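seq:
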Amino acid sequence: MTLAPASPTCSLELDRRGAELLFQVLTEREEKNSVAIASNESFSGWTKTFTDPRLCAAIVDRLTFGGNIVETGTTSYRLAHTLAQRGVV
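struct:
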């Protein structure tokens, strides 16, 4: 499962119901199947997507408990390319 915005310069925002449904899916998959999430935001920035801070914390907790976090530490080529095309550098 990957949550990705339609363009690299916009962010995806889930309403409370959408966030609750995602949390339910993560809960049902826990210890049964793998889940992969890709994000350009650090966990502290996830409140832009999950606007309820408590639900955001619960989702991050669910994803990180016993999980593997891979931080590439690189900038996105696609984001840099899109910003350059738009004249935003």
